[in-house]
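Thread amino acids onto this structure.
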């Protein structure tokens, strides 16, 4: 009578296949530094477009303000900049790979202050390039001034 079951070689082959599959899934699930920076820049580009649209709809200036650790959106009420109340999309967020160095071209900020980009009530703004860098990876958000934001 012959016993039924798996041989040791068959079990080892199955374990190797499972290990390789898990390794590939893990590598794809954890994005590289470059992919993470591109995703962060894409998210910010979409939020900048939303902020620009909010400024036009609200008929009040809306600003993007960022430090090396986080960024947020503000709306101007009279002479005071305030956080957008109860706005889940334009809420304050932390950078996933902080600290992040931010460069704005052309520069509009006071040295030493947080970076701030203001969107007015007009549908046309000044074009700019916002570069995000963390370590050796960077991504640039290019705004053409008429509402198009692209990530490079």
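Threaded sequence (152 positions):
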């Amino acid at each position: 009578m012959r016993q039924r079951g798996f041989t040791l070689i068959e079990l080892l082959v199955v374990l190797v296949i499972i290990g390789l599959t898990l390794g590939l899934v893990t590598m794809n699930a954890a994005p590289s530094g470059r992919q993470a920076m591109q995703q962060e820049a894409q998210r910010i580009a979409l939020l900048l477009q939303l902020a620009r649209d909010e400024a036009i709809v609200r008929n009040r200036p809306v600003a993007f303000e960022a430090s090396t650790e986080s960024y947020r959106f503000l709306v101007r009420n009279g002479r005071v900049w305030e956080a957008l109340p109860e706005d889940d999309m334009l809420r304050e967020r932390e950078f996933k790979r902080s600290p992040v160095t931010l460069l704005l071209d052309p520069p509009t900020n006071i040295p030493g202050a947080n970076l701030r980009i203001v969107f007015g009530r007009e549908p046309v703004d000044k074009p700019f390039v916002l570069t995000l860098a963390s370590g050796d990876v960077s991504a640039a958000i290019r705004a053409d001034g008429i509402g198009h934001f692209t990530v490079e």
